[in-house]
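Q: Fold this one first, please.
A: Sequence and structure below.
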Amino acid sequence: MLSRQAEQMEFIDHTMRFVGSLLASDRVAFYQVENGRRMLEFQIRNVEQEFHDAYLRSMHAYDPLHVTRLLQAGRSNKIFWLHDQERDCAAAVVERYRAFLGAFHISDVTEMLFGFHGEVVAGISVLWNRPISADTSLDAIYAAHAYIEFHLQKLLMAAGRCPPVDLGSRYGLTRREVEVSGLVCCGRTNAEIAECLGLGLATVKTHLINIYRKLGIENRASLVALASGVQ
């Protein structure tokens, strides 16, 4: 079996290839996000090292798609286009960053952010060497985002990174019930939880019945609300 680190690297490599193939742009960067704002652990595919080094050294400060800018602006969506986000930036910032991109023949950038229990934990940058065409399939992009986010959450759960839902000790939930509760709080459906944890759909439903009984609640919304309020 693959080690957790090898499994993660395989996932990242597959994801970058998948996104590049889907969007017909082979210049892709995957990064992790720490504390909802710091970008780190970059993995790049067909991105010039000179570009990447300059971005990390100084040009990230001008990036309209930097995760800090997006979160500070209170953006609730998870897919962004550079040409849209430039409207909220000063002209001098846009001009400086566009000049940087132009030196590497980059016309536009698509940014995808991925969440885990309400926090942004990773992102993907897709660099376009041509203007975005009108026939670019937004449906395909959003479907790809949902697919990647689900499997990223599955990987995090398998690595033992459970959402911060401290219901087990307080309400006597089993380890599996805590895992199911965490995935519910991530917005996963019963079918997705079954796939993520390798369970049958009926078993997931049984776990939910037991969770609701122990917590004295009746539905998923109440579970999410209760978990969010646990200190």
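Q: Good. Now the second chain.
A: Here it is, same layout.
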Amino acid sequence: MTHSQDAIWQQVYSSQWYQTHHPQLVQARELAKRLCRELNQLPMSEVAKRQKLLSQLLPNVKNIDIGSDFACDYGIHIYTGDNVTMGSRVVILDAAPVSIGANVTIEDGVVIASLTHPLEAAKRKAGWQQASPVKIGDNVVLSEGCTILPGAVIPAGAVIEPGKVVTR
């Protein structure tokens, strides 16, 4: 990795505004999208093949069960404890780290976003974004259709109700 490549990730990790069109970010997202597509095309019965793809896509997860139609931005910024279960249509926008504790259930249609876009249209069009880590404690349930926004910290044992939006 060259110094300029390190610089873009440092910008992302330090919650500064960064341009999502940077070649290294685009390349990392393209790889994750390809792996998600391959994963989502495999039948659930293809356990060994799914696990192999998951280990490439999500190298920092432990024991995880993922339903159909999973999507993420990078995969490399998702960290989990043991025994995490995700339903179908879960989306994790992991520009900044998304830490998920042990024994967590993520139901269908949940969105976890660690990035935000500027309010100004010109800056959005230019590809500016900002990322803030998301932390989810042990023994949490993220109920169907809820949304977790950048910078949110969910304490151990919490149950987020269906359709709720968590902002902090």
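Q: Anything worth noting on the second one?
A: The chain has one domain: 3-166.
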